[in-house]
Amino acid sequence: MKKVKSFLEKDIDLSILVGLTAAVLLIAAFVFGSSMYSARNIQSMAFQIPEFGFLALAMMLSNMVGGIDLSIIANANTVAIFTAYVLNGTWAFGTQGGARVALAVLVALCTSLVFGLLNGLIIAKTSAPSLVATLGTMTLIQGVGMAITGGTSVGDIDPLFSSFGKAIFLGLPVIFWLFLIVALVLGLILSLTGFGRKLYLYGGNPVAARFSGFHNEKMSVLVFMLTAVLSGIAGLIILSRVNSAKVGYGDSYLLQTMIVCVIGGIDPNGGKGKVGGVVIAIILMQVMSSAFTIMSLSPYTKKLIWGIMLILVLGLNHIIAIQSKKSTLKKSMKALASAAK
Amino acid sequence: MEPILSASNISKSFIGVRALNNIDITINAGEIHCLAGENGCGKSTLVKCISGVYTPDEGTIQIEGQTCRSMTPIEAMNHGIQVIYQDLSLFQHMTVAENIAISKLKFENTKLINWKTIKAIAKEQLDKIGVTMDLDETVGEISMANKQMVAICRALAQNAKILFMDEPTTALTKTEVSHLMKVMLELKKKGLAIVFISHKLDEVFEVADKITIFRNGNKIGDFNSSDLDEKSLSYYMTGREIEYPRYHRTYKDNTPILSVEHLTRKGQYEDMSLTIRPGDIIGLTGLLGSGRTELAMSLFGLNKTQAGVIKVNGKEVDIKSPMVAKKYGIALLPEDRSREGLFIERKIKENISAPIIDTICKKGIVNRKKENEIAEKYVEELKVRTPSIDTVVGTLSGGNQQKVVISKWIANSPKVFIMDTPTVGIDIGSKAEIYEQIHKFADEGMAIILISDEIQEVMANCNRVLVMAHGKCVVELSEEDLMQEGADKHLAEIIGNQKEKALSQEVAQ
Amino acid sequence: MTKKIDPFQRMLLIIIVVYSVFVTIKNPGFFQIQTVFDIIKTSSTTMIVAMGLLVVMISGGIDVSFMAIALFGSYTSLYIMIQTGINNLAFAFVVSMAIGIVLGLINAVLISWLKLPPFIITLGTQNLFHGIMTTFISDKSFGSGVLPECLHKFGQGTLFKVATANGSTGLTVSLIPVLIAGLATYFILRKTMIGRGIVAIGNDEESARRAGFNPFKIRLFVYAYSGALAGMMGIVYAAQVNALYPNKMVGDELMVVAAVVIGGTKITGGQGKIFGAVLGVLITYLLNSTLIMIGLSSSWNNLFVGAILVIAVAITSYQERVKNRKHLIFTE
After folding, report:
1. Which of A113, A201, B266, B384 lies at 20 to 30 Å from B41 by C-alpha?
2. Domain spanning B258-508: which superfamily?
3. In the predicted model, is pLDDT for residue A53 greater than 90?
């Protein structure tokens, strides 16, 4: 029992999150019963999670270094547009079938890396606040997509590619497995590797990181490139699910990724948070989203609920933070007093 | 002289810890008064009680005969009490004129702004202290000394009767300090009471009429500045006569490990040369602004040099970044512990392993066992007082935090360790322990550059000393020089001479 | 204050002039009074909210909820007017701005209480406000037929007309609210104590507190002011489109942020000029309305705005970084 208590105290945010998720899942079971937990609905949720999930992971990474990446959605869409052009033969360079798909994925990867590099370099080399820097690149990347498509959607893609988005493995969509694997790998990288450790330290105090001999510019470029690759994957998934790509798809995801990060225990000031928390938050979000669909709520009502949720969670986090700060202060004061004696 | 402020029996406690204990203090008009004591002795708490930031638990404060039991900061300012904090609290992107006038206008509850009035106020105050400045310049662009003047003018604009200044000289060069002293004497003549707060023997002591020394929340006594010297002051402040053991170099190898030749960065330091052998502890002294921190930053790859050569083990190197410095075995203990030195919200072990994280990785994975071992080892070796290596660094005391910063670099086994004011804000006990460690490192062959402005610290630890002023090395003291009787007095004199030189230069100008 | 035009604004001016000359060469049809009037009309709504955003950014904050506030205010007030048959322009403005002030105060309270990046908080309130409006008031669209007559008149009104080759062209009445917003902002920032307080908390909140300012009160004012201007803009917008939709405006806020940032306003607070913000808005609208004239479709707009924004941000941030590094300040 003591162990449980100390665990709960150690990671209070995560414990609250798990409790909350369990409660929502239970309530959903009572209210909606089989319509929520039917195999079909679970599968459809699993189809919807990945594209949003990848974007949320991207946002999480940028938050972990105390920044924010507004360009993730623009990035995903523009990558999808480039890829769609390869897949519908416009830029296929004579490739067919599997080769064309491979080329498309390569193009997607390179495009997203270039976008990430752009973000990373601006932020690393000019110390621009990431909010305005990525606002700029967001507009720019969107502009690239707009300029080449003229705002229309690019479709007619190779069916081989779109079949990937619909494929099922062991009862769950392949893209869902892909998301789980990437999340797991990302989680392991952050918690176990030297890179992950440096990322946390750099996010918590970049000045001390520089004074400890970290390559701050490299850290920032790497983080934003990784962010961009995750958004690029989201773009590929969107393309394979929707069968077309256009500028402006999924704009409402920006708020949702931020909500998920906040709920998942990521500190927007950097240096704190775990992938596990974000993944649970993503699932929680999807369940709620699904419930809204079953209740056939209007998009406006959804907006209202997301807005309320963000403010509520921030408020709750704030209160918890004040409480825990108070208790640590008391503890250290006690220790000080006993040491003085 | 009549007392303008007298406080009697002031006591203040925080969560059961007594920060001030029955303090009596009298401040006279037209007097320069110094409050001295170590960090945490209560001098700042007293100022906060007088300026209305805190309400004292007991005691009374009389200002011009009027008794004030409890005051808000605004009431205190209405009584003519002004505090200039160490950070000066100026607005970087506003003009000089505005910075001077804004508080006055705010307190007069002005609603609308007239820019002519603002300039007039600023000009009047600047004239009062005999300084001319471009009123339209933004404060972010002016020198530290001028910022100090702006802060003083701002206080004067609000009809200050008592001016508290927290460590006013730390960021000033010698010339600037002497100028500040002139301004202080000028203000004193005008009947203003000036109280400055300090933790070390400072040149401003010389113009002080009265010095009050604090220790552990108690007042030790009032003194005349002529009655005190470095040693007696430190005795009163710490409560014990401290004689730190001197360091003697015993290391056999005399091949230089790091040499610097004619290193220059205009406006910061010029033509600096020094050679350091294993086992050397070189003291780099001279006040802030003399170029010593700037030089240290250059050796650590954080401040580009413009000319000159740095050699490590006889080979010329280009230290472009701290990463390169780390590769050559150069470590830096930075001046600002919590901002530059530590990841304050992370565990001790994560702080210690930060610079070596790549080397304790196996195939990219952090080797936790090794990390723990290393952390345990250095926590033990440096006597960091902590429940465990998993404790968050921010909860430790200043001394223990500093030991963690030292551990983090020692774990990287540096060949040259640059320590920028390593014992600022640290209790006496930890200080002695840190000195002991420094001696040990040097005995084992590490070369150390110790930046310090405490003569006692330099004397106890260094076998060679470089005195810097205005970006240049003015005197170098060898091992023999330092071994001579009265070397500490000599060193104090050298620094004193620099000040006189600066003064005479100014007269000449 | 000496009238020094700072180099950054000069650069923006040069860009505008050079670009205009370029467009005129490509398409002489650009160089006429009607173009100027058109740009004034189309940019008027953005100009108004840009002033509010400028004040918020000078105080060290940011607001991305103002478009939702504009929508909430204008939609609600016009909805009331449609329902009750009130036909009074002043009523529309007063109600809309009052709603704007209330919503702005909510922003300020949340930001002061939660002490978190205002971007995240106002992104939340953006959705919250929009959701409340559409859920609890109405989510119907209204065409020009049912809108109050006065609104229609205001939207079409001109201050004066100038005869041109093809008929006559007029300067829009919308310029009046723009001028009011601009002058009010100038007056607040330059001539009042609260304006200096806004700059002060943007510089350094702790120092502002020591100088006797109350950051909470100032923040209340700042976000309420931004809300009021948003409410005003909402009515101007509805009048210009001559229709009332429950989903317009929201989503365009980042473009306004971009324009203000192009104008040299720092997101870190304490710095920013009205003239700069005006230039920033002008550049974005100039591009918007002239791309077709130089043979590009309007879909190239974002590409150019994005490029200018990236360059502006990079230049200003890099200058700051170099200055800080020289003083051995590492801001990262």
Report:
1. B384
2. P-loop containing nucleotide triphosphate hydrolases (3.40.50.300)
3. yes
